[in-house]
Protein: Glycosyltransferase family 4 protein
Amino acid sequence: MKILFTKSGSSPYRVDFYNELGKHIELDVLYEYRIAFDRDKSWSLKKAHNFKEYFLKSFHLFGSKVISFGFTKYLKKDYDVIIVGEYNTLTGRLITLFLSIKKIPFALNIDGGYIKNDNWLKKKIKTFFISKATWWLSPSVESDSYLKYYGANENNIHRYPFTSVFEREILKDILSVKEKDDIKSRLGIAEQKVIITVGRFIKSKGFDILLKAFSQVDSETGLYIVGGEPTEEYLELIKEYNLKNVHFIEFLNKDELANYYKAADLFVLPTRKDVWGLVINEAMAFGLPIITTDKCVAGMELVENKGNGFIIPIEDQNELSKKMNVILSDNKLRNKMALNSLKKIKQFTIEEMAKAHLTFFNKIVKNK
Structure:
């Protein structure tokens, strides 16, 4: 079976997935460009071992806009299934139009999505491109609704578990207090309780809300924000709220970050908007209770209120501080949530992600 994926740029978690999928099929991946312009340079790329990768010649237009050409020679090859990974890039739209005009069936893959209050023109454009696909690959209930809203046929929507976590990376059990204390000691963490968050320092991540909410958390708790140097806004908030025990950690690779997850007691992502949020998957793999918002699609799919964490409204610092205190002050609840996170995330591994795609491919090929 020969499959083609098209994607904007390469990323570590996608390469892991392609390598796993490529163990079972002949897989080609066509990239619009080599690496996203807004990513940390340390966001290193992994190697293609079980698939072939091709990079289009790209041209940087303005801002982060890129356009790439030369894709038609790849799309004309004899593939059993073509999966388009972008509909909102210029090149992704050109690829969609080409396949549609040539009447070549294809699947549209999305990594998540939620319905927004688009103006009529934006909705028209999204509907035009999303509805062109023959099949759709979706990671969640929320994403299903998104696709249907923009013209997808619900009978041809196929589900897959979106993740960046291998089965072997999931803890077998929650760590003991002694194990956590040993890791804290190695990392130089002095606080009794640890809250961790991970992400780029951009407004949409809601770290300003987290800092404000942290002012109402017990003073023996440390807040570790992993992602780089603090912005001027964050430093001003620390001064304004007289915050102690706030630590900014530079960008860490997956292995380095693992120790901070293991040392933590709670993971918080107060995002204002995230079409998925893979850090939720990663934190759950280390047995962490999760607090995130109703605009985080990963949270909506993976977090059960009071089960393995809490879903809160966006920009609600009072509710955030309340829920952080509930989890941090109750060891029994925290351990229950930790175990539930480990149980849930076992269904969302790269191996399971590959299996779901193989099931989809076999179904399509069988019905051709």
